[in-house]
Amino acid sequence: MSHNEDQLIPNLYRYIMPREAEFIDSQRVWTEYALKRQEAITQNKRLTLEDLEDTWDRGIPRINTLFEKDRHVLAYDKGW
Q1: How many domains does one find in the chain?
Q2: What is the residue range of the signal peptide feature (predicted)?
Q3: For residue 7, is it within any domain?
Q4: Does 3 fall in a domain?
Q5: Which region, left, alpha or beta, applies to residue 73 given φ > 0 means left and ψ of -120 to 50 means alpha?
Q6: Residue 39 falls inside a structural domain
Q7: CB neighbours (10 Å) of residue 71?
Q8: Which of the pair, 78 or 53, is modelled with greater confidence?
């Protein structure tokens, strides 16, 4: 890769979330998921993709792993 001398290369850290922020965001996302799930149970309905769309690719492990075929593996990761 090459660039002109007067052209700045953006810093990679602008685009990547720090690990600590990822853990904090994960805790928030899973708490939000638990609240949505509890609300769905009290209303006797199922969670839909639209309910989880804003958090679908967030959290550690990712929320979307709940909807994968091999989701039983998630039970081993729950304590993390």
Answers
A1: 1
A2: none
A3: no
A4: no
A5: alpha
A6: yes
A7: 12
A8: 53
pTM of this structure: 0.64
Residue 66 has, within 13 A of its CA and on its CB side, a CA count of 17
Does position 5 have pLDDT exceeding 90, yes or no? no
**9 within domain boundaries:** no
Pair of tokens at residue 67: 């909807």
Question: Which is it for the CA torsion 70, 71, 77, 80, positive or negative?
Answer: positive
Q: d(Cα 78, Cα 58) in Å, to the nearest integer?
A: 15
Q: Measure the CA–CA gap between 53 and 51, rounded to whole angstroms.
A: 6
- The residue behind tokens 């309910």 is 51
Residues found in the chain: 80
DSSP 7: S
When pLDDT is averaged across residues 57-75 and rounded to a whole number, the result is: 72
Which residue range(s) make up the domain with 27?
Answer: 18-77
